[in-house]
Amino acid sequence: MAENKDQQNEDKKKKAKKKTIVILILMLVVLLCLFLVQCALKDWANKQVAGPAPQPVVEDTVKVLPPPVDTVVADTAVEDSTPKDTVAKPVHDPVADSIRARKKAVRDSLKAIQDSINAANKAREDSLKHVADSLAELEAKRKADSARVADSLAALPVDSIPPVVSLVPPPGRYYDPIKLKAKCDELKCNSWISIGDTLNPVDAKKGVEYNKTGVVFFRAQDSAGNYSAWEKGEYDMASDNRCGKNAYPVPVNGKEVCVDAYEYPNKADETPRDMVSQEQAASLCEAAGKRLCTLTEWQAACKGKDNLKYSYGDKYNQTRCNANTKAALRSGRKTQCRSWWGMYDMNGNLWEWTATPSKEKSTAFYAAGGSWSGNNQSRCTESSYSFYPQNQYPSVGFRCCKD
Fold first, then answer.
1. 18: domain range?
2. 63 part of a folded domain
3. Are 255 and 337 found together in one domain?
4. 268 with 174, same domain?
5. Rounded to 5 degrees, what are φ and ψ at 133?
6. 185, 206, 255, 308: which could join 164 in a potential S-S bond, CB 3.0 to 4.6 Å?
7. Is pTM, for the whole model, over 0.85?
8. CB–CB of 335/260 below 8 Å?
9. Residue 58: inside a domain, yes or no?
């Protein structure tokens, strides 16, 4: 805004300068014209004077005889015997009168031009004074606004809450090398990662290559200077995945079960299948060489090795999984919604059919995990028996398992 005002003031100054230059040029042109006119008049007058001389005016005179010799000269003055009507009158010169009239007209024109210039200069000075006054008012207003903002900021409570930070990808078992980052819940945030202990922190913005089983410590600092406490995450880097693509082994009651990493059709960034009955889900898994997971297998995959309430921990976090929106997301979009064993979207997104019949209703089967609007009820232990096997629902999908 300040740059626009400075530009406007600069434009006004340039316009005033141009106007003054134009007036001066007009004055010079007028003076030149007057000079040429005066020269022409003077030349014409000289030609008139050089013409035939005017005839002298013959005056009637009366000769006065000298008084007689014996006449006594009186002390009194002798009356002038010349008749009054014989006194010489001044000669009228029309050329001189014309020159005088033209000079007077030139003087009047010059005076009018000078008056115009003086008026223009006064108007320019008044305009510049008005601009200066406006700028002074704006500057005073800006200072007042800045002072009010500063006072408002000073009145705000001091931010003393440390940032919330998490590891990306989340702790768990992986079968390929990963790049670790510490993700902060604020835009302007510094984060660090330290492998094994807190003694060797490194900047986590660019990521840290990682490929070993162990503990990783992480923390962050927000824009107000608040530090989070050191937190830790455990990683198990394995190399014996016997389940194939997008499926990982889960220990269940002393044996291993291969559980799909994503909801059917088990593809990352793919829209999960809904509006499918329990019977159709079982048939689709069978066609893929697998079977529908039981409720026990499903919950074991969700709870992880530490028997957690949610796939990411024991405390509900509305940002981790798709549990507080209005529709299902593509599989794996919520990267933090991952269980220890490697399964995504087990909390929220879609309810998932299981192969376990309901104990409460013999004609129903359990569905687990909750949907996109379940909020904190979309837990690993959450299940429902109100779903009939032949019915299709827009919020119910499934995933497959294999021995």
1. 1-30
2. no
3. yes
4. no
5. -65, -40
6. 185
7. no
8. no
9. no
Choosing from 237, 260, 276, the residue where a domain stops is: 237
For the chain, 403 residues long, the average pLDDT of each consecutive 10-residue run is: 70 84 88 84 69 46 42 39 49 79 86 89 88 89 88 75 94 96 89 95 92 96 93 94 96 97 98 96 98 98 97 94 96 97 97 94 91 95 81 95 96
217 and 328, same domain (yes or no)? no
- Strand arrangement, sheet containing 208-210: 165-168, 178-184, 208-210
Task: Read off the tokens for 201.
Answer: 């922190």
CATH number of the domain where residue 387 is located: 3.90.1580.10
Query: Structurally, how many domains does the chain consist of?
Result: 3
Q: Do 215 and 277 sit in the same domain of this protein?
A: no
Supply the pLDDT for residue 4.
Answer: 67
